[in-house]
Design goal:
The chain is an all-alpha fold. It has five helices and no strands. The radius of gyration is 29 Å and the shape is rod-shaped. This is Cytochrome C Planctomycete-type domain-containing protein.
Length: 152
């Protein structure tokens, strides 16, 4: 080992350099398998409202499915769109799903913290996130109006 302090520092630096380089390289991230999912602000994708969101948030034995669904509103059985679009609510006034004015739809209003009628939904389950609520609004606006407003 060299006795000169300068030579000692050089020898020590030469010995530690590969170790430091290895540690730095170990901290580098690998490559992303799907970099596109980070380009749209976090990668949230709307679930299918009818087949994913309604069953998760609105279904259940005392909720909106089965032989006697709450408010007479079955959101789970096939044909849900035909039961909702331009149909009047039973227990609260308003059109259940109004594609012309989605945010005034009774279905949408009931998902808000302070609906104009009754309790906010879903009861006994987690409230919808702002992203999920936007998905419901977008789903409502994507429906084809029937020109109705018919009674259910």
């Amino acid at each position: 080992m060299p006795r000169n302090p300068r030579a000692l520092r050089r020898a020590l630096a030469a010995a530690l350099f590969p170790l430091a380089l290895t540690l730095l390289a170990a901290g580098c991230p690998g490559r992303l398998e799907n970099p596109d999912r980070f380009l749209d602000g976090g990668g949230f994708t709307c679930p299918d409202v009818v087949t994913e969101l309604f069953p998760k948030s609105c279904g259940g034995s005392i909720c909106h499915e089965g032989a006697e669904p709450a408010a007479g509103l079955d959101l789970i059985a096939p044909g849900v769109v035909s039961r909702l679009v331009d149909k009047m609510g039973r227990d609260c006034p308003g059109i259940l799903v109004d594609p012309v004015d989605p945010e005034s739809s009774l279905l949408y209003e009931k998902l808000l913290p302070l609906p104009s009628c009754g309790s906010p939904m879903p009861i006994g389950k987690p409230t919808l996130t702002p992203d999920e609520l936007a998905c419901v609004r977008d789903w409502i606006s994507a429906q084809t109006p029937t020109g109705g407003g018919d009674e259910p």
